[in-house]
Amino acid sequence: MITLYQFNACPFCWKVKALLNYAKQPYETVEVSPFGMKEIDFIEHKKVPVLRDDEEIIVESAKIVKHVNDKYSQLPMQDDAEQWVKWVDDELVHYLPPLIHPTIKVSYANFSHILDTTDMGWLKAAFTRIAGSLVMPKVARKMQAKHNIEHPEKEFKQAIDKWVTEGLQGKPFFGGEQADFVDCSVFGVLHSSHQLGITELAGKHNAVFAEWYAQCQPLMSNKPA
Ligand SMILES: N[C@@H](CCC(=O)N[C@@H](CS)C(=O)NCC(=O)O)C(=O)O
Fold this sequence. Notes:
Structural class: alpha+beta
Strand content: 5-15%
Distance between the termini: 14 Å
Order of helices and strands: EHEEEHHHHHHHHH
CATH topology of the largest domain: Glutathione S-transferase Yfyf (Class Pi), Chain A, domain 2
Helix content: 55-70%
Number of strands: 4
CATH class of the largest domain: Mainly Alpha
Strand order of the largest sheet: 2-1-3-4
Bound molecules: glutathione
């Protein structure tokens, strides 16, 4: 039995879920409380995702998706797959915090959607929303500086264009006629904040992206029954 310890809106967690969903591999999720993370008390590593596969515990999304692909999805990896997987983790994902949490006001509004799908009680949700929207803009600014992002929206759109021109290269999917491991990673990271207008922003900017995203959505966004 696979259990994924996650935050529902975490891009690294969605990278794993997109692959599990695409592989139609059943799994359970446990929503981790951002304050205290007591649900993952059984390990020192205090970040999600954490995957439990029977007795095996795996941390770090790159290792988790490798485990899932080796054991379950077994999608072929093209020669340049590693480079794109690295691009997702080292570049694409870093545009999200400054886009989602640019100011306390926007962050507060976005937290309402982020917490929408979680089943924490109203008091905990209210506290998380207030504390989160005070903390996250500062975290986002730090990450922006760390990753040399000057203009988040402009650079994010450039990253989307790069994915379309150099990744998709006119094919329906990175994998060709069928989506592959890299498609799942890019889709998962971006889908984590679809309810916050991020994929809409990308789709309005680049119609080819919008088409690719729409093709991936039914394949990768739904948990298998
Ligand atoms: N390199 C890690 C990054 C995971 C990560 O940063 N997760 C965030 C949520 S999106 C987290 O757990 N943050 C909690 C914290 O840092 O306290 C991975 O790929 O799994």
